[in-house]
Amino acid sequence: MGKALGYGLKCLLSSLVISQAQAFYLPGWSIKNYKENEQLPLLVNKVYSDNTQLQYAYYDLPFVCPPTGKSHGSGLLSGQSISLNLGEVLRGDRIVASDIDLTVGHDKECSFLCNKLVTRKDLRRARELVKEGYVVEWIVDNLPGATSFVTVDKSRKYYAAGFKLGFTDYSSSTGKPRYFLNNHHTIVIRYRAAPGRAGEKGGKVVVGFEVYTKSIGASVKRENGCPKDLHDVEDHFELYMPPNRTVESQTKYSYSSYHPEADEEGGDDDLISIPYSYSVYFREDDSIEWSRRWDLYFINSEEGSRIHWLAIVNSLIICGLLTGIVLLILTKTIRSDIKSYKEGSVEDGKLRLKRKGKGGSRSPKSEKAGFGLLEQEGEGDKETDAASDDEALEDVTGWKLLHADVFRKPAYGHLLAPLVGSGMQLLFMAVGLIFLSAVGVLNPSFRGGFISAGVGLFVFAGLFSGYFSARVYKTFDGKHFGKNALVTACLIPGLLFGLVFILNLFVWAQASSTAIPFGTLVVIVLLWLCIQVPLVYLGSWFGFVRTGAWEHPTKTANIPRQIPNQAWYAKNLQSIFLAGLVPFAVIFIELLFVFQSLWQDKSGYYYVFGFLAVVSVILILTIAEVTVVTIYVQLCSENYHWWWHSFFVGGGSALWVFLYSIWYYFANLHISGFVSSMLFFVYSFMACCVYGLLTGTVGFLTAYAFVRRIYGAIKAD
């Protein structure tokens, strides 16, 4: 417990300390240069697969060479854990120094690493990971080890982060799968002279890190642990142990077809030796600038830029059409409605003045004529007034009839206020993340920076959450701002934390590095309770006491109006579902890239935040316009229950996003295993809830501004 808590506190401190060398990736900034004969540390991280959501720390695998603890002269001991920020821990990173020796400028044709003795159980574990297509991540100078490819026309080279743990082949005789382990790694470090004075003094900077794998069988002749001829290896290391055979007789069966059922025979005490070796080559490459070294990881995605532009054009067309509709409503329809209402009110006032003048010409004698006559005349005047009122208001229809009910406080307003506050908190966090990513502060070189910055922005945005929640709460005649602040601070974060904790129980059982360590969970709780909750309370106090409620332009009547039957498209569920389709149409093309980056290309990085920023702005405008149109149609149908409806209409596209995620799971993913599938659906559900809360808040605030504007115009006239 103490060790886990200490590890979590260490992650917190490292995430809160702002280091320029880690936080920025700008030309000429945070460059690490190396001199000839200097040790270059190679760090191992984790293994992951596109077919599952479970990651594992590299040194937790039972069939790899364990660290020996020796020093390479770089200040690190092999097996020593590297300090991680909060984002790295949450994304499953477990970075440890390795035994592989890299000396700048020194090539090694072959170096023996170790002979690892494994049991049948360990061999089955290796076979499962190879079958699932697991990829290994090593790190040199903050660059992930990459598999090198060339484009179809062979004009450009590009990288795919990571390299295969092994590969699958099929027996030519039986057609059954055979699994092989990559136990030799050829490491190519590409470098160039460091810029400025460091380069003049012989300094070098790393601009590329490539790893080429090879599987070498146990029967290959070796000398000092290395194969005599690395370039001509026909026997691969098959993850197969014959039944009831010893290590000495393993070579006898190296060419046999693999039979899975046979491997289950025999005890787990049987051992087999896996030899590991590596080669190192340093190659100077002046074609790559240090500031552009990450471009090789993205060059294969340049063709997607056309699709991103298509997404923007599609979004602009939809947003432009909606803008025209909203302008038509605001400038023509509503203005003419207000004008007719004004003219009707003037005529009604003249009629009342004229009737009042006629009543004032009675003589005193006639007033004394009798009480019964006066009573009859009074009743006649009332009937005349009612008839004249009906004539004056016969043109006042639709939304204008709701001026005394439109600001009637909604049911469960004490719940709507915290949701709006949390939505503003998420909106601030999303805007901050997209902005920092678009300007280049958050980038792949800042490992875990996106998540760390997101947590920091979310906690700090508790001020905005409390402020907006308190103002909405007081607008709904709330009295206890402390209770509202507590609900705001605990409702959404508590639900999200509870879901993550339950998921962690399943992931912990799989011994996966995807699981959040207990100490980190404690740190997150401390950030939540000790920092965010006070910030929410402070914002609530300022919004409730110092600023106060929003003032409505019209007064609310004591007796609510009766709402007539609504058309099918104006009913709650139908209008939410139909209105949500429009914002989804704006983002669904860009959504494909986001899903691919999150669930498929885990070895890649989503980097087109400039496109995402533009699409996000268009999305917010589209949601605002869709909400205005939908609420206007609802008010014209004489339905004044628009508070909750505007929130759900704004977040309606989250329903379509979740349906899209279900389709994406069955159409594009090949996830196997109950836990991985559960992680996909639960995290997708959580993401859609967060997205719906954010967009719902945009819809609510837009609708409120729209309603205040049109009914304020009536009052002004």
Can you put this structure into words, describing what you see?
A hairpin with a 2-residue loop joins strand 14 and strand 15. The protein starts with a helix and ends with a helix. Helix 10 crosses helix 19. The N terminus is likely disordered. It is of the alpha+beta class and 717 residues long. The protein contains 19 helices and 16 strands.
Q: What's this, in brief?
A:
The chain has helices at 2-16, 20-23, 86-90, 120-131, 197-200, 260-263, 304-359, 364-367, 371-392, 413-438, 449-460, 462-475, 481-509, 518-547, 572-600, 609-636, 643-650, 653-668, 674-716, and strands spanning 43-48, 56-57, 96-97, 108-119, 135-140, 143-144, 146-150, 157-161, 163-164, 166-170, 177-181, 184-193, 204-214, 222-223, 226-227, 271-284.
In whole angstroms, the N-to-C terminal distance is 69 Å
Content of β-strand: 5-15%
Helix content: 40-55%
Rg from Cα: 35 Å
Instruction: State the total count of DSSP E strands.
Output: 16
Mean pLDDT level? 82
Number of helices: 19
Shape: elongated
Largest sheet: 6 strands, antiparallel
Regarding quaternary structure, how should these chains be classified? single chain
Low-confidence stretches: 1-29, 245-262, 350-396
Q: Pairing-aware structural class of the strands and helices?
A: alpha+beta
Helices, strands, pairings?
Blueprint: H1 2-16, H2 20-23, E1 43-48, E2 56-57, H3 86-90, E3 96-97, E4 108-119, H4 120-131, E5 135-140, E6 143-144, E7 146-150, E8 157-161, E9 163-164, E10 166-170, E11 177-181, E12 184-193, H5 197-200, E13 204-214, E14 222-223, E15 226-227, H6 260-263, E16 271-284, H7 304-359, H8 364-367, H9 371-392, H10 413-438, H11 449-460, H12 462-475, H13 481-509, H14 518-547, H15 572-600, H16 609-636, H17 643-650, H18 653-668, H19 674-716
